[in-house]
Structures are given as structure tokens and as C-alpha cells.
Amino acid sequence: MSFTWAKPLWTSSQDLSEKPYSQLRTSTDVESLASAQVDASLEPEAHRKKTVIDARVISDAIIGLSDGLTVPFALTAGLSALGDSRVVILGGVAELIAGAISMGLGGYLGAKSEEESYRATYSSTREQIAETPCTAASSISSVLNPFELPDTLVNELSLHLSKSPHLLDFLMRFEHMQPEPASSRAITCAITIGLSYLIGGLVPLIPYFFVPREDVLVALCWSFGVMLSCLFLFGYCKTCFVAGWKGDGRVWQGVVGGVQMMFVGGVAAGCAMGIIRLFHNLASD
Predict the structure, then answer these.
(1) Which of 55, 219, 225, 228 could covalently link to 208 via disulfide, CB atoms 3.0 to 4.6 Å apart?
(2) pLDDT digits (tens, 9 = 90+) for 233-269
(3) Where are the domains of the chain?
(4) How far, in Å, are 12, 60, 198, 236, 284 from residue 258 at the CA level?
(5) How does pLDDT run across 54-94, given as a tens digit for each residue?
(6) How far apart are CA 270 and CA 78, in angstroms?
(7) C-alpha distances out from residue 71 to 101, 221, 269, 270, Å
């Protein structure tokens, strides 16, 4: 039995391997690849599999918890000079409620401003594409130039993307760096920040519920220790949520994040407590 087809097949493969890569990929291949990549990058977030917690939610929780652990503690430390734990509890609860509402409203208004900025940029970009389509290619080139791609490839991608129905979304995401915010972003931000502030501010108040009214200094010492412990635990969990939980390196990163959070929050609370004590002493004199 003879295998007369083996040599021609090998020769054909060898001939293909000897051809330059640029000759093997036509402009149609490049455009198809670019279209697939752009379509995948512009796929709605709802259709993607989420494997981690949204970074914005973590950021909102950090803002709420860090403020909640430090600001109410400073207030309760100042009120401890009055020598009555009931006064500390009432003042701390009032501050918690007002602070949580204020922080939540601030987060809501901030998210709404972000949505308004996105809509304004989206509208202006759409008008620019409709009135001066020739600027689309230059905008695409300005996005791709930092990657030091070949000029021919940049030109082909610019030509294809300028005719793509996803051009507006591409420019919003990669030129203006403004992905479309979720419709529930404002509500989620307000609830996350407000609830985190309320939970974080309640922690320093807990010791005052379990001591006699006259033992305010004892409650203050316990409150300071509880606050530092919660700051470390929060910093550790925050870092591990982002970097991961497994591995010695990840554990060390969590410890560093916890110490950093504890140091920053402790310094802020200490400064606030010192200022309140200073004002109290000046008022007493």
C-alpha cells in the first residue's frame, strides 16, 4: 500500500508555515476578531457570570464602616466626660441615626450625579458621531495608540469600529472611561453606606449597655478595644474579599490590610477624641 497523499499534504502544511503571518490573516479576519472582542467587552453586565463582589459595593461599605467606627466613638468618648453612660448611649444613638441618614443621602446624591454625568457624556458623544462621523476614527485611534499596535492594524480596527453599531458604547467605555451605571446604583449605594455606618457606629456603643451608669471610663476602654478589633477584622476581610482567602501570601495581605485599617481608624478616632477632650477642658476652665 502506498501513501502518495502524505507528501503533498506535508508540503502544503510546510508551505503555509513558511508564509508570513500577515499574509495568512486578511483584513476580514482582523475585523471579525475585533468585532468579536468588542462585542464581548460590551456585553451587558447582567449576562456575565459574577464571581466576585462588586468593587463599588466594597468601596461603599468601607466608607460607611470606617466612618461609623470612628465618628460615633469620638462622640461617645467626649460624652464620657459627663460621667453618665445613659447620656452617652442617648447621644450616640441620636448621632447614629442622623449620621446614617446623612451618609445614605450623600451616597444617593453622589450616585445620581454619576448617572447624570454619564447621560450628558453619552448625549454629547452621540451628537458628535452624528454630526462629524470622521472624528470617530481619530477617537478610536487615540484609544488604541497607547498599546503600540502596528499602524495597519490600528487603521483596520478604526475602520471597522467606526462602522460598528457598538461604536458609541466603545467610546463611552474606552475613551471616556464611563461604563453605564446600573439602574439600581443610587439605591444600592445609599443602603450600603447608610447601613454600614449604622452597624459600624453601633459597635463602640455596645460596652456602655453592660456597665453601671457611673463606670463610664471602663466602658470607654472597652469601647476603644472593641473599635480597634473591629477595624482590624474589617480591614482583613476587606482585603481577602478582593485578593482571595487561600494561600499564605493572601493571609499576609489580609493582616497588612487589617493593621492598616486599624492604624488609620485609630489615629482618626484618637485625634477626634483628643480635640473633644481639649474643648471640654477649655470649657471647664
Answers:
(1) 219
(2) 888 887 887 777 777 778 888 888 889 888 887 787 7
(3) 61-284
(4) 62, 17, 21, 4, 38
(5) 778 888 888 888 888 888 887 887 777 777 888 888 888 99
(6) 11
(7) 14, 16, 7, 10
